[in-house]
Amino acid sequence: MTSLTSNYLDGNAAAGELSRIFAMDLTAAEGQCAHCGARKRFADAHVYMQSPGVVARCAVCQHILLRLVSVRQRVFLDLRGMTYLCLDTDHVQPSV
Ligand SMILES: [Zn+2]
Hints:
This protein is mainly β. The protein has one domain (9-89). It is 5% helix and 35% strand. The chain has one helix and eight strands; from the N terminus they run E-H-E-E-E-E-E-E-E. Strands 1-4-5-6-7 form a five-stranded antiparallel beta sheet, with no helix packed on it. It has a three-stranded antiparallel beta sheet with strand order 3-2-8, with no helix packed on it. Strand 6 (64-71) and strand 7 form a beta hairpin. It is globular and about 35 Å long. It starts with 8 loop residues before the first strand and ends in a 10-residue tail after the last strand. 22% of the residues are buried. The structure holds zinc ion (ZN).
């Protein structure tokens, strides 16, 4: 049995799944935890890929920031664990 805190990856691990639905790289975005108010880059989140889908937890309080589940052609995205997510448009890659 593994504990919740020892079995995670950093936010970069979710980049592949997130790139399927977001044109921008979310791992560089800054988000605020709705539970404790910590403001961190998404890459700093603790990401759990073992569950059905992706779960990202706050690195400070372990509250769920983001849940992403793919079911056939549909993607369910739950972002209510974040007060906001701030994206830097300087990092947008022009589409070819
Ligand atoms: Zn938190």
